């Protein structure tokens, strides 16, 4: 069922047909979701997907969603959620998803209010813990201006989590725990503000795949402003030796300020260029050393020509005689 006629309340949702499997309620203006938006007596056991994107939702009450035990996909993209305190009002409802006991996908792309503060990570952790999302395997948190997770264990209470999407935020480093996400399969960090990975970061990524764990790990780090320094060489070497799969690794770039200008280099081209410069330098050095060696030999031969001639004269005389005798013998025959 698709409802997108500019509604300003959710009253019509209380009359959903019980055979509804997919609800698309988008493009409306619903600043607040009240309690029991699907009514109190409904049997919506067939409902599998709820899409409430782009509704301007600012607050979801702790008891807004009832009768959603079989919903597997919840989409709240492009809203304006505030889950932390604002003035005298508390928008933090840690059990907001507690009735989604079979939820496997949670989409929160650009779902939170602009300039959301660092408490977002703590609030998310509280929500994940109190909502008991034990079957959740995919979470989307792209485009939420996330800078850092003050609570590094934000994802640790999601035991089935496989895919974490954090692209297009402002994350400067791997500042949350990944080793506790035991089934992690895909980590999206593209288009953030990561300038380097520490050796500890790289070691932790290695721990998440073969041979430490019996499953693969794919990461995406494209579009980050890595610095063109020693750390980028470490990253490049790691990218070509690790068992972690780096998606689009040929597109990874590093950034450098030089002569008052900002330069962006493709990592593979940068390394190839450095190798080429080293190779050319070695070639030039070999040529120069060869010329120097030949010059030294020529100089020595010139200086010691009398000595060399005196030593070579007996040998040349013996060779000359041998040739002469051989010629006489040939004529006699």
From TrEMBL:
The keyword Transmembrane applies. GO terms for cellular component: membrane. The keyword Membrane applies. Signal peptide: none annotated. The chain crosses the membrane at residues 281-303. Keywords: Leucine-rich repeat, Membrane, Repeat, Signal, Transmembrane, Transmembrane helix. It comes from the Eukaryota. This is Uncharacterized protein. It comes from Aquatica leii.
């Amino acid at each position: 069922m698709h409802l997108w006629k500019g509604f300003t309340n959710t009253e019509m949702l209380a009359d959903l047909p019980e055979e509804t499997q997919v609800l698309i309620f988008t493009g409306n203006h619903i600043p607040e979701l009240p309690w029991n938006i699907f009514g109190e007596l409904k049997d919506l056991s067939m409902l599998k997907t709820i899409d409430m994107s782009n509704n301007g939702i600012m607050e979801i009450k702790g008891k807004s969603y009832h009768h959603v035990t079989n919903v597997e996909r919840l989409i709240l993209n492009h809203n304006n959620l505030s889950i932390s305190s604002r003035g005298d009002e508390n928008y933090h409802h840690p059990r907001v998803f507690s009735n989604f006991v079979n939820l496997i996908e949670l989409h929160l792309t650009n779902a939170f209010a602009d300039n959301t503060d660092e408490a977002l990570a703590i609030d998310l952790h509280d929500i994940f813990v109190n909502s008991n999302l034990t079957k959740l395997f995919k979470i989307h948190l792209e485009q939420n201006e996330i800078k850092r997770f003050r609570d590094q264990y934000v994802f640790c209470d999601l035991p089935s989590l496989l895919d974490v999407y954090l692209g297009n935020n402002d994350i400067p480093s791997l500042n949350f725990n990944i080793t506790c996400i035991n089934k992690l399969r895909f980590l999206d960090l593209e288009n953030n503000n990561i300038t380097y990975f520490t050796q500890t970061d790289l070691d932790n990524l290695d721990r998440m795949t073969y041979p430490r764990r019996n499953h693969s790990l794919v990461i995406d780090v494209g579009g980050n402003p890595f610095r063109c320094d020693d750390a980028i060489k470490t990253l490049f070497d790691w990218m070509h030796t690790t068992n972690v799969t780096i998606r689009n690794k040929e597109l990874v770039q590093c950034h450098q300020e030089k002569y008052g200008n900002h330069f962006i280099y493709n990592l593979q081209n940068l390394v190839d260029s450095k190798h080429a410069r080293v190779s050319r330098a070695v070639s030039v050095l070999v040529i120069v050393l060869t010329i120097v060696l030949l010059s030294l030999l020529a100089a020595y031969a010139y200086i010691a020509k009398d000595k060399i001639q005196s030593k070579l004269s007996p040998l040349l005389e013996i060779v000359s005689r041998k040739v002469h005798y051989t010629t006489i013998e040939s004529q006699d025959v």
